[in-house]
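Hi all, posting the design record for the shared folder.

TITLE: backbone redesign
STEP: 1 of 1
STRUCTURE INPUT:
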Protein backbone atom coordinates (compact mmCIF):
# COMPACT_ATOMS: atom_id res chain seq x y z
CA UNK A 1 0.00 0.00 0.00
CA UNK A 2 1.20 3.53 -0.77
CA UNK A 3 -0.15 7.02 -0.22
CA UNK A 4 -0.46 9.62 -2.95
CA UNK A 5 -1.16 13.34 -3.15
CA UNK A 6 -2.78 15.14 -6.11
CA UNK A 7 -2.65 18.86 -6.83
CA UNK A 8 -4.44 20.55 -9.72
CA UNK A 9 -3.49 23.68 -11.66
CA UNK A 10 -5.60 25.01 -14.52
CA UNK A 11 -9.04 24.47 -15.97
CA UNK A 12 -12.04 22.31 -15.16
CA UNK A 13 -10.80 19.70 -17.64
CA UNK A 14 -7.70 19.39 -15.48
CA UNK A 15 -9.84 18.99 -12.37
CA UNK A 16 -11.71 16.18 -14.09
CA UNK A 17 -8.44 14.53 -15.17
CA UNK A 18 -7.24 14.69 -11.57
CA UNK A 19 -10.28 12.66 -10.58
CA UNK A 20 -9.43 10.12 -13.28
CA UNK A 21 -5.86 9.98 -11.97
CA UNK A 22 -7.10 9.36 -8.45
CA UNK A 23 -9.35 6.55 -9.62
CA UNK A 24 -6.43 4.90 -11.45
CA UNK A 25 -4.11 5.18 -8.46
CA UNK A 26 -6.73 3.86 -6.05
CA UNK A 27 -7.25 0.81 -8.25
CA UNK A 28 -3.48 0.29 -8.18
CA UNK A 29 -3.61 0.05 -4.39
CA UNK A 30 -2.94 3.64 -3.44
CA UNK A 31 -4.57 5.63 -0.66
CA UNK A 32 -5.19 9.32 -1.23
CA UNK A 33 -3.90 11.83 1.32
CA UNK A 34 -4.64 15.54 1.56
CA UNK A 35 -1.24 16.18 3.15
CA UNK A 36 1.62 16.44 0.69
CA UNK A 37 4.12 15.80 3.50
CA UNK A 38 2.74 12.31 4.11
CA UNK A 39 2.59 11.16 0.46
CA UNK A 40 4.84 8.53 -1.06
CA UNK A 41 3.79 9.66 -4.54
CA UNK A 42 3.28 13.37 -5.35
CA UNK A 43 1.40 14.18 -8.57
CA UNK A 44 1.02 17.73 -9.90
CA UNK A 45 -1.54 18.18 -12.69
CA UNK A 46 -0.60 21.06 -14.95
CA UNK A 47 -1.95 23.62 -17.42
CA UNK A 48 -0.02 25.00 -20.41
CA UNK A 49 -2.57 27.47 -21.76
CA UNK A 50 -0.97 30.49 -20.08
CA UNK A 51 2.74 31.14 -19.59
CA UNK A 52 2.39 32.27 -15.96
CA UNK A 53 0.49 29.08 -15.10
CA UNK A 54 3.39 27.04 -16.45
CA UNK A 55 5.94 29.03 -14.45
CA UNK A 56 3.83 28.61 -11.32
CA UNK A 57 3.80 24.84 -11.71
CA UNK A 58 7.57 24.65 -12.20
CA UNK A 59 8.14 26.73 -9.08
CA UNK A 60 5.71 24.54 -7.15
CA UNK A 61 7.53 21.37 -8.17
CA UNK A 62 10.88 22.82 -7.10
CA UNK A 63 9.41 23.79 -3.73
CA UNK A 64 8.45 20.16 -3.07
CA UNK A 65 11.75 18.51 -3.93
CA UNK A 66 12.92 18.61 -0.31
CA UNK A 67 10.30 15.95 0.45
CA UNK A 68 12.43 13.43 -1.47
CA UNK A 69 14.70 13.48 1.57
CA UNK A 70 11.76 12.63 3.81
CA UNK A 71 8.68 10.58 2.91
CA UNK A 72 8.27 11.05 -0.85
CA UNK A 73 9.59 8.34 -3.15
CA UNK A 74 8.52 9.88 -6.45
CA UNK A 75 7.52 13.39 -7.54
CA UNK A 76 6.28 14.24 -11.00
CA UNK A 77 3.82 16.05 -13.17
CA UNK A 78 0.95 15.10 -15.41
CA UNK A 79 -1.18 17.14 -17.80
CA UNK A 80 -0.58 19.70 -20.51
CA UNK A 81 2.78 21.09 -19.35
CA UNK A 82 4.05 17.52 -19.13
CA UNK A 83 2.97 16.98 -22.72
CA UNK A 84 4.33 20.19 -24.22
CA UNK A 85 7.49 20.79 -22.20
CA UNK A 86 8.79 17.35 -21.24
CA UNK A 87 12.40 18.00 -22.30
CA UNK A 88 12.54 21.38 -20.54
CA UNK A 89 11.02 19.89 -17.40
CA UNK A 90 13.52 17.07 -17.20
CA UNK A 91 16.36 19.51 -17.72
CA UNK A 92 15.24 21.90 -14.98
CA UNK A 93 13.98 19.64 -12.22
CA UNK A 94 14.84 16.08 -11.06
CA UNK A 95 11.39 14.69 -11.82
CA UNK A 96 10.58 11.01 -11.44
CA UNK A 97 7.78 10.97 -14.02
CA UNK A 98 6.30 13.15 -16.75
CA UNK A 99 2.94 11.91 -18.03
CA UNK A 100 0.70 13.59 -20.63
CA UNK A 101 -3.11 13.89 -20.58
CA UNK A 102 -3.59 10.84 -22.84
CA UNK A 103 -1.26 8.60 -20.80
CA UNK A 104 -2.86 8.75 -17.36
CA UNK A 105 -3.32 4.98 -17.28
CA UNK A 106 0.47 4.66 -16.92
CA UNK A 107 0.13 6.15 -13.42
CA UNK A 108 -0.67 2.61 -12.32
CA UNK A 109 2.89 1.64 -13.28
CA UNK A 110 4.17 3.95 -10.55
CA UNK A 111 2.58 1.88 -7.81
CA UNK A 112 5.67 -0.28 -7.48
CA UNK A 113 7.92 2.75 -7.35
CA UNK A 114 5.83 4.38 -4.64
CA UNK A 115 5.82 1.25 -2.47
CA UNK A 116 9.59 1.08 -2.16
CA UNK A 117 12.72 3.15 -2.59
CA UNK A 118 12.86 3.65 -6.35
CA UNK A 119 15.56 2.09 -8.46
CA UNK A 120 17.53 4.95 -10.01
CA UNK A 121 17.76 3.02 -13.25
CA UNK A 122 13.97 2.81 -13.55
CA UNK A 123 13.36 6.56 -13.49
CA UNK A 124 12.22 8.91 -14.89
CA UNK A 125 9.02 7.51 -16.37
CA UNK A 126 8.09 9.55 -19.47
CA UNK A 127 4.76 8.84 -21.18
CA UNK A 128 3.55 11.56 -23.55
CA UNK A 129 2.08 9.82 -26.56
CA UNK A 130 -1.00 11.57 -27.92
CA UNK A 131 -3.91 9.22 -28.57
CA UNK A 132 -6.54 9.43 -31.28
CA UNK A 133 -9.01 7.37 -29.25
CA UNK A 134 -8.45 7.80 -25.49
CA UNK A 135 -11.50 9.17 -23.66
CA UNK A 136 -11.20 7.25 -20.35
CA UNK A 137 -14.89 6.43 -20.54
CA UNK A 138 -14.18 2.97 -19.09
CA UNK A 139 -12.74 4.52 -15.93
CA UNK A 140 -16.03 4.04 -14.17
CA UNK A 141 -16.44 6.81 -11.64
CA UNK A 142 -18.85 4.82 -9.55
CA UNK A 143 -16.04 2.37 -8.67
CA UNK A 144 -13.88 5.02 -7.01
CA UNK A 145 -14.12 6.03 -3.38
CA UNK A 146 -13.24 9.54 -4.52
CA UNK A 147 -16.48 10.02 -6.38
CA UNK A 148 -18.92 9.64 -3.53
CA UNK A 149 -21.87 11.65 -2.33
CA UNK A 150 -19.88 12.57 0.78
CA UNK A 151 -17.19 14.22 -1.33
CA UNK A 152 -19.37 15.95 -3.92
CA UNK A 153 -23.03 16.27 -2.90
CA UNK A 154 -24.03 19.06 -5.24
CA UNK A 155 -22.26 19.75 -8.50
CA UNK A 156 -20.07 17.66 -10.78
CA UNK A 157 -18.11 17.89 -14.00
CA UNK A 158 -18.62 15.38 -16.80
CA UNK A 159 -16.14 15.41 -19.68
CA UNK A 160 -17.91 14.49 -22.92
CA UNK A 161 -15.25 15.37 -25.48
CA UNK A 162 -11.45 15.67 -25.54
CA UNK A 163 -9.02 17.39 -27.88
CA UNK A 164 -9.50 19.99 -30.59
CA UNK A 165 -9.46 20.07 -34.40
CA UNK A 166 -9.52 23.85 -34.87
CA UNK A 167 -5.79 24.59 -34.49
CA UNK A 168 -6.19 28.27 -33.62
CA UNK A 169 -2.78 29.79 -34.20
CA UNK A 170 -2.26 30.86 -30.56
CA UNK A 171 -3.51 27.69 -28.87
CA UNK A 172 -1.46 24.79 -27.57
CA UNK A 173 -4.42 22.46 -26.89
CA UNK A 174 -4.20 20.34 -30.09
CA UNK A 175 -0.55 19.69 -29.26
CA UNK A 176 -1.21 18.71 -25.64
CA UNK A 177 -4.62 17.02 -25.83
CA UNK A 178 -4.68 15.85 -29.44
CA UNK A 179 -7.49 15.77 -31.97
CA UNK A 180 -11.20 15.81 -31.17
CA UNK A 181 -12.85 12.62 -30.01
CA UNK A 182 -16.14 12.22 -28.19
CA UNK A 183 -17.28 9.75 -25.58
CA UNK A 184 -20.20 7.45 -26.26
CA UNK A 185 -23.60 8.81 -25.35
CA UNK A 186 -24.35 5.85 -23.11
CA UNK A 187 -21.20 6.31 -21.02
CA UNK A 188 -22.09 9.98 -20.49
CA UNK A 189 -25.65 9.12 -19.49
CA UNK A 190 -24.40 6.42 -17.11
CA UNK A 191 -22.05 8.89 -15.45
CA UNK A 192 -24.73 11.56 -15.06
CA UNK A 193 -27.21 9.02 -13.70
CA UNK A 194 -24.63 7.97 -11.13
CA UNK A 195 -24.23 11.56 -9.99
CA UNK A 196 -27.98 11.95 -9.84
CA UNK A 197 -28.25 8.85 -7.65
CA UNK A 198 -25.63 10.26 -5.28
CA UNK A 199 -27.39 13.61 -4.89
CA UNK A 200 -25.98 15.90 -7.57
CA UNK A 201 -28.17 18.86 -8.52
CA UNK A 202 -25.97 20.33 -11.23
CA UNK A 203 -23.87 18.90 -14.08
CA UNK A 204 -21.31 20.85 -16.10
CA UNK A 205 -20.48 19.19 -19.43
CA UNK A 206 -16.85 19.72 -20.41
CA UNK A 207 -15.00 19.69 -23.70
CA UNK A 208 -12.41 21.71 -25.57
CA UNK A 209 -15.09 22.42 -28.20
CA UNK A 210 -18.06 20.97 -26.41
CA UNK A 211 -20.64 22.00 -29.00
CA UNK A 212 -18.75 20.11 -31.72
CA UNK A 213 -19.44 16.88 -29.83
CA UNK A 214 -20.43 14.03 -32.12
CA UNK A 215 -20.18 10.28 -32.01
CA UNK A 216 -21.63 7.53 -34.18
CA UNK A 217 -25.17 8.28 -33.02
CA UNK A 218 -25.51 11.82 -31.69
CA UNK A 219 -24.69 15.49 -32.11
CA UNK A 220 -24.38 17.82 -29.12
CA UNK A 221 -28.03 18.85 -29.39
CA UNK A 222 -29.03 15.16 -29.52
CA UNK A 223 -26.96 14.52 -26.40
CA UNK A 224 -28.57 17.39 -24.48
CA UNK A 225 -32.04 16.19 -25.43
CA UNK A 226 -31.24 12.69 -24.19
CA UNK A 227 -29.84 14.02 -20.91
CA UNK A 228 -33.02 16.05 -20.43
CA UNK A 229 -35.19 13.06 -21.29
CA UNK A 230 -33.36 10.31 -19.40
CA UNK A 231 -32.16 12.11 -16.24
CA UNK A 232 -33.71 14.40 -13.69
CA UNK A 233 -30.70 16.62 -13.00
CA UNK A 234 -32.19 20.06 -12.23
CA UNK A 235 -29.43 22.08 -13.85
CA UNK A 236 -27.30 21.29 -16.88
CA UNK A 237 -24.63 23.59 -18.30
CA UNK A 238 -21.62 23.28 -20.58
CA UNK A 239 -18.29 24.85 -21.48
CA UNK A 240 -16.56 25.80 -23.70
CA UNK A 241 -18.19 26.10 -27.11
CA UNK A 242 -16.60 27.49 -30.27
CA UNK A 243 -18.47 30.36 -31.99
CA UNK A 244 -18.39 28.72 -35.41
CA UNK A 245 -19.99 25.48 -34.17
CA UNK A 246 -23.20 27.04 -32.81
CA UNK A 247 -26.40 25.88 -34.54
CA UNK A 248 -29.58 27.84 -33.98
CA UNK A 249 -31.28 24.71 -32.69
CA UNK A 250 -28.87 24.74 -29.74
CA UNK A 251 -29.78 28.31 -28.83
CA UNK A 252 -33.47 27.51 -29.17
CA UNK A 253 -33.13 24.44 -26.96
CA UNK A 254 -31.45 26.44 -24.19
CA UNK A 255 -34.10 29.13 -24.47
CA UNK A 256 -37.04 26.80 -24.01
CA UNK A 257 -35.64 24.22 -21.55
CA UNK A 258 -35.55 25.57 -18.00
CA UNK A 259 -33.14 22.86 -16.82
CA UNK A 260 -30.48 24.15 -19.22
CA UNK A 261 -28.64 26.98 -17.49
CA UNK A 262 -29.09 30.27 -19.39
CA UNK A 263 -25.36 30.89 -19.56
CA UNK A 264 -23.20 30.91 -22.67
CA UNK A 265 -19.44 31.22 -22.64
CA UNK A 266 -18.57 32.24 -26.20
CA UNK A 267 -14.85 33.06 -26.64
CA UNK A 268 -14.37 36.15 -28.81
CA UNK A 269 -10.55 36.46 -28.51
CA UNK A 270 -10.48 39.58 -30.75
CA UNK A 271 -12.95 41.91 -32.42
CA UNK A 272 -10.71 42.61 -35.40
CA UNK A 273 -11.27 40.65 -38.60
CA UNK A 274 -7.57 40.84 -39.42
CA UNK A 275 -6.52 39.50 -36.03
CA UNK A 276 -9.24 36.83 -36.11
CA UNK A 277 -7.92 35.68 -39.48
CA UNK A 278 -4.34 35.45 -38.15
CA UNK A 279 -5.67 33.63 -35.13
CA UNK A 280 -7.36 31.13 -37.50
CA UNK A 281 -10.64 31.47 -35.62
CA UNK A 282 -12.90 30.79 -38.60
CA UNK A 283 -15.40 33.63 -38.09
CA UNK A 284 -15.60 37.38 -38.61
CA UNK A 285 -16.74 40.18 -36.35
CA UNK A 286 -20.06 40.17 -38.21
CA UNK A 287 -20.48 36.41 -37.74
CA UNK A 288 -19.82 36.72 -34.02
CA UNK A 289 -22.21 39.61 -33.46
CA UNK A 290 -24.96 37.81 -35.39
CA UNK A 291 -24.49 34.78 -33.12
CA UNK A 292 -24.73 36.99 -30.02
CA UNK A 293 -27.82 38.75 -31.37
CA UNK A 294 -29.49 35.39 -31.95
CA UNK A 295 -28.48 34.21 -28.47
CA UNK A 296 -30.02 37.25 -26.77
CA UNK A 297 -33.19 36.80 -28.81
CA UNK A 298 -33.58 33.08 -28.08
CA UNK A 299 -32.47 32.93 -24.42
CA UNK A 300 -34.29 35.00 -21.79
CA UNK A 301 -32.02 36.73 -19.27
CA UNK A 302 -28.91 35.37 -20.91
CA UNK A 303 -25.68 35.42 -18.89
CA UNK A 304 -23.03 35.92 -21.58
CA UNK A 305 -19.31 35.48 -20.90
CA UNK A 306 -16.23 35.37 -23.11
CA UNK A 307 -12.43 35.18 -23.48
CA UNK A 308 -10.32 38.06 -24.81
CA UNK A 309 -6.66 38.21 -25.87
CA UNK A 310 -4.96 41.58 -26.37
CA UNK A 311 -1.54 42.15 -27.87
CA UNK A 312 -1.66 39.37 -30.45
CA UNK A 313 1.15 39.78 -33.03
CA UNK A 314 0.42 42.62 -35.42
CA UNK A 315 -2.46 44.03 -33.35
CA UNK A 316 -2.75 47.70 -34.31
CA UNK A 317 -4.49 50.45 -32.38
CA UNK A 318 -7.47 50.07 -34.72
CA UNK A 319 -7.54 46.30 -34.14
CA UNK A 320 -7.68 46.92 -30.40
CA UNK A 321 -10.45 49.49 -30.83
CA UNK A 322 -12.46 46.90 -32.76
CA UNK A 323 -12.18 44.55 -29.77
CA UNK A 324 -13.42 47.29 -27.46
CA UNK A 325 -16.30 47.94 -29.87
CA UNK A 326 -17.42 44.31 -29.98
CA UNK A 327 -17.16 43.99 -26.20
CA UNK A 328 -19.47 46.98 -25.88
CA UNK A 329 -21.95 45.71 -28.47
CA UNK A 330 -22.01 42.16 -27.07
CA UNK A 331 -22.49 43.55 -23.54
CA UNK A 332 -20.79 40.64 -21.79
CA UNK A 333 -21.65 39.85 -18.19
CA UNK A 334 -18.03 38.90 -17.54
CA UNK A 335 -14.85 38.07 -19.40
CA UNK A 336 -11.55 36.28 -18.94
CA UNK A 337 -9.02 38.76 -20.31
CA UNK A 338 -5.35 38.10 -21.03
CA UNK A 339 -2.29 39.59 -22.66
CA UNK A 340 -0.95 37.39 -25.44
CA UNK A 341 1.98 35.10 -24.61
CA UNK A 342 3.67 32.69 -26.99
CA UNK A 343 2.97 29.03 -26.45
CA UNK A 344 5.22 26.21 -27.67
CA UNK A 345 4.43 24.36 -30.93
CA UNK A 346 1.79 26.87 -32.04
CA UNK A 347 1.51 28.36 -35.54
CA UNK A 348 1.65 31.89 -34.13
CA UNK A 349 4.95 31.25 -32.41
CA UNK A 350 6.44 29.86 -35.61
CA UNK A 351 5.03 32.45 -38.05
CA UNK A 352 4.31 35.71 -36.20
CA UNK A 353 6.93 37.73 -34.30
CA UNK A 354 5.71 38.70 -30.82
CA UNK A 355 5.99 42.36 -31.80
CA UNK A 356 3.69 44.12 -29.36
CA UNK A 357 5.70 45.63 -26.45
CA UNK A 358 4.81 44.13 -23.09
CA UNK A 359 4.04 47.57 -21.67
CA UNK A 360 1.51 48.22 -24.44
CA UNK A 361 -0.10 44.80 -23.91
CA UNK A 362 -0.59 45.59 -20.22
CA UNK A 363 -1.99 49.06 -21.00
CA UNK A 364 -4.54 47.60 -23.43
CA UNK A 365 -5.42 44.84 -21.01
CA UNK A 366 -6.02 47.32 -18.20
CA UNK A 367 -8.32 49.39 -20.42
CA UNK A 368 -10.62 46.49 -21.28
CA UNK A 369 -10.58 45.16 -17.70
CA UNK A 370 -11.76 48.51 -16.35
CA UNK A 371 -14.42 48.85 -19.04
CA UNK A 372 -15.64 45.30 -18.59
CA UNK A 373 -15.83 45.62 -14.79
CA UNK A 374 -17.97 48.75 -15.16
CA UNK A 375 -20.17 47.00 -17.71
CA UNK A 376 -20.55 43.94 -15.50
CA UNK A 377 -21.51 46.01 -12.47
CA UNK A 378 -24.12 47.88 -14.51
CA UNK A 379 -25.61 44.63 -15.81
CA UNK A 380 -25.72 43.09 -12.34
CA UNK A 381 -27.40 46.21 -10.96
CA UNK A 382 -30.36 45.45 -13.26
CA UNK A 383 -31.08 42.42 -11.07
CA UNK A 384 -31.67 44.59 -8.00
CA UNK A 385 -35.21 44.11 -6.73
CA UNK A 386 -35.85 41.07 -8.92
CA UNK A 387 -36.22 37.46 -7.85
CA UNK A 388 -33.84 34.76 -9.05
CA UNK A 389 -33.87 31.03 -8.37
CA UNK A 390 -30.79 29.99 -6.41
CA UNK A 391 -29.42 26.57 -5.56
CA UNK A 392 -27.13 26.87 -2.50
CA UNK A 393 -23.73 25.24 -2.94
CA UNK A 394 -21.51 25.97 0.06
CA UNK A 395 -20.69 28.44 2.77
CA UNK A 396 -18.99 31.50 1.34
CA UNK A 397 -15.29 32.19 1.73
CA UNK A 398 -16.44 35.31 3.57
CA UNK A 399 -17.53 33.09 6.43
CA UNK A 400 -20.48 31.13 7.79
CA UNK A 401 -22.80 34.15 7.62
CA UNK A 402 -23.12 33.78 3.83
CA UNK A 403 -24.13 30.89 1.62
CA UNK A 404 -22.81 30.91 -1.93
CA UNK A 405 -24.79 29.56 -4.85
CA UNK A 406 -25.79 30.06 -8.46
CA UNK A 407 -28.89 31.43 -10.14
CA UNK A 408 -30.72 29.73 -12.99
CA UNK A 409 -28.48 31.60 -15.44
CA UNK A 410 -25.26 30.89 -13.60
CA UNK A 411 -24.85 34.16 -11.71
CA UNK A 412 -22.98 33.93 -8.41
CA UNK A 413 -25.20 34.78 -5.42
CA UNK A 414 -24.36 35.32 -1.76
CA UNK A 415 -27.26 34.77 0.62
CA UNK A 416 -27.30 35.94 4.23
CA UNK A 417 -27.54 32.71 6.22
CA UNK A 418 -27.52 34.05 9.78
CA UNK A 419 -31.24 33.41 10.28
CA UNK A 420 -31.29 30.04 8.53
CA UNK A 421 -31.05 26.56 10.10
CA UNK A 422 -27.45 25.29 10.00
CA UNK A 423 -28.42 22.11 8.15
CA UNK A 424 -30.39 23.99 5.49
CA UNK A 425 -27.52 24.28 3.01
CA UNK A 426 -27.24 20.49 2.70
CA UNK A 427 -30.61 20.36 0.93
CA UNK A 428 -29.33 22.16 -2.19
CA UNK A 429 -32.90 22.87 -3.24
CA UNK A 430 -33.83 25.68 -5.63
CA UNK A 431 -35.23 28.67 -3.74
CA UNK A 432 -36.44 32.17 -4.71
CA UNK A 433 -34.02 34.91 -3.67
CA UNK A 434 -34.64 38.65 -3.82
CA UNK A 435 -31.56 40.52 -5.08
CA UNK A 436 -30.77 43.46 -2.79
CA UNK A 437 -27.39 44.62 -4.13
CA UNK A 438 -24.69 43.70 -6.62
CA UNK A 439 -21.03 44.03 -7.50
CA UNK A 440 -19.41 43.35 -10.87
CA UNK A 441 -19.15 39.64 -10.03
CA UNK A 442 -21.74 38.86 -7.35
CA UNK A 443 -25.42 39.31 -6.51
CA UNK A 444 -26.42 39.66 -2.84
CA UNK A 445 -29.88 38.60 -1.77
CA UNK A 446 -32.35 37.40 0.82
CA UNK A 447 -35.00 34.69 0.82
CA UNK A 448 -38.31 36.07 -0.41
CA UNK A 449 -40.33 33.33 1.32
CA UNK A 450 -38.98 32.79 4.87
CA UNK A 451 -40.91 29.56 5.35
CA UNK A 452 -39.13 27.98 2.38
CA UNK A 453 -36.60 26.59 4.86
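Okay, here is what came back for every position:
SEQUENCE:
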Amino acid sequence: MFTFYLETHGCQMNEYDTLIARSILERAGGVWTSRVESAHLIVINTCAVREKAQEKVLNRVRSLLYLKKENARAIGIIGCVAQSEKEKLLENAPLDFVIGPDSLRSLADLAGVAEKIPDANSLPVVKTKISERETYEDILIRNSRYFSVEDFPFSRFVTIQRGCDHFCSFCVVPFTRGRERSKSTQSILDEIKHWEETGAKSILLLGQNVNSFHNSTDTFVDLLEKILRETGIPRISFTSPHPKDFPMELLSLIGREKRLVSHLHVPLQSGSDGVLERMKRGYSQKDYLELIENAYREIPRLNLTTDIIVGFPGESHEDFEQTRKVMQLADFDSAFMFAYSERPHTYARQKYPDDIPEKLKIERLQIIIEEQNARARKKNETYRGSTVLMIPEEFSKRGQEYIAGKSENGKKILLDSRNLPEEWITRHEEIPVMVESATSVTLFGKITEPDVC
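COMMENT: Residues 22 and 369 are 37 Å apart (CA to CA).
Let me know if anyone wants the other runs.
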